[in-house]
Write a structure and sequence with these properties.
By secondary structure, this protein is of the alpha/beta class. The chain has a single domain, classed as Rossmann fold, CATH 3.40.50.150. The chain has a seven-stranded mixed β-sheet with strand order 6-5-4-7-8-11-10, sandwiched between helices. Helix 2 crosses helix 3 and helix 5 packs parallel to helix 6. The relative contact order is 0.13.
């Protein structure tokens, strides 16, 4: 067992269940070949807490390495645009929020929707290049960490707010308690904390090992997140299951201990207990299944790559894990629609990242869809393609 402290419950009974060896940072795109010599690999070993069931990487990477320059812009992904339109409507409509803070705001994809609906919102993000994009849209954004000092500064000019939220970024933090303390500082007593997090239940069901890259330090269930929130004076009062990122939870939590939870909270807690979602044995079995899948993809695709031209599609964080863990150096190009990534080289395996138009000019025989969670969108966008699509998850299939 690890001597590290669990980020949720604070206990030290952590059990390793998946060792992926040394891998590049999923967001560590290289500007050109001159940077290859200095590229570093980092160990990636995933643990589960024997007490609360939190799935976690216990070896964090310094945030300035991960996020100072960030190559993911949410507004370039169609399904995320639709998701955040719906989320803004939920915040302004169902919750009747008038003032909000969003940490991990990225390029302002949610802030812009809130502003359009009359919600006064401030965003916080660590990445300088991304916050510059958000400010260019006329949004109120702070560059840096969402901590107590940041929360006090926001409160001094905005007052206590109705809502604090973060979408698919809470898991990026080695010390999530610092964010929860900041949220308590800026929230009104009647306010709510809204966290959208990748869900451990979907990770398990769909064998989504490819989300376990270095920046995703935790994968949360309702049970493990409840344990963490309780330590910092929050009570879960509602929960929603979302399709975002191939399965996520939206969890609403209140600083008011007397606020009554929606029945959905007890229902999901019971379902997690039935699934043994927070039990270490479940995750040890998951680790064994992952190793078998990686072996199958490695051997099958290497055999095809020796005879046919293969490109990959979707330079997401998942992509770096698939290409490196399966040693897919034979893949010639990585296709991605983000202008932030186009012209760079993939971390670890160093394929050039190209825009989709390049695939039309030089169609490969096979396309390995690393962004498999957006496969339907990708396939519809590239309906002209007559070669073979390959998805590694939720099943290893050829189309």
């Amino acid at each position: 067992m690890s001597g590290a402290e669990c980020r949720a419950c604070g206990n030290r009974r952590l059990e390793p269940f998946l060792d992926l060896g040394e891998l590049p940072l999923a967001g560590g795109f290289l500007s050109d070949a001159s940077e290859i010599a200095d590229e570093r690999l980092y160990p990636l070993e995933v643990h589960v807490c024997a007490d609360c069931g939190l799935v976690q990487n216990v070896l964090p990477i310094a945030p300035e390495l991960l996020f100072k320059q960030y190559f993911f812009s949410s507004s370039t992904v169609g399904p995320l645009i639709e998701h955040f339109k719906g989320y803004a409507e939920f915040i302004s409509g169902a919750l009747a929020v008038k003032t909000a803070v969003e940490f991990g705001c990225n390029d302002g994809i949610l802030l812009a929707q809130l502003k359009a609906r009359g919600v006064k919102a401030v965003g916080v993000d660590y990445a300088e290049n991304i916050t510059a994009i958000a400010r260019g849209k006329g949004l109120d954004v702070v560059t840096g960490a969402f901590d107590l000092d940041c929360a006090r500064a926001i409160r001094s000019r905005l007052g206590s707010v109705d809502y604090v939220t973060g979408s698919n970024c809470f898991a990026h933090n080695h010390e999530p308690g610092a964010i929860l303390e900041a949220a308590r500082q800026v929230l009104a007593p009647t306010g709510l904390l809204g966290l959208e997090v990748m869900y451990a239940g979907d990770l398990l069901e769909k064998l989504q090992w490819d989300t376990l890259y270095h920046e995703h330090l935790t994968v949360l269930s309702l049970g493990s997140l409840s344990a963490l929130l309780k330590r910092y004076g929050f009570k879960v009062v509602d929960v929603f299951h979302l399709p975002m990122h191939a399965g996520s939870l939206r969890v609403l939590a209140s600083p008011d201990p007397n606020r009554q939870p929606n029945a959905r909270v007890a229902e999901l807690a019971a379902r997690e207990k039935q699934q043994a979602l927070n039990e270490p044995a479940t995750w040890h079995a998951f680790g064994n299944d992952v190793r078998r899948l990686i072996d199958a993809v490695t051997s099958t695709m290497a055999d095809i790559g020796a005879r046919r031209k293969i490109w990959a599609y979707g330079a997401s964080g998942r992509a770096a894990l698939w290409l490196s863990a399966c040693r897919m150096t034979y893949v010639e190009r990585m296709v991605d629609s983000s202008p932030l990534r186009a012209g760079t080289l993939m971390p670890g395996t160093h394929q050039p990242v190209v825009l989709p138009e390049e695939m039309r000019k030089n169609p490969p025989d096979y396309v390995f869809v690393t962004a498999w969670n957006y496969f339907d969108v990708i396939r519809a966008k590239e309906e002209w393609y007559r070669g073979t699509w390959v998805t590694p998850l939720p099943r290893f299939e050829f189309f």
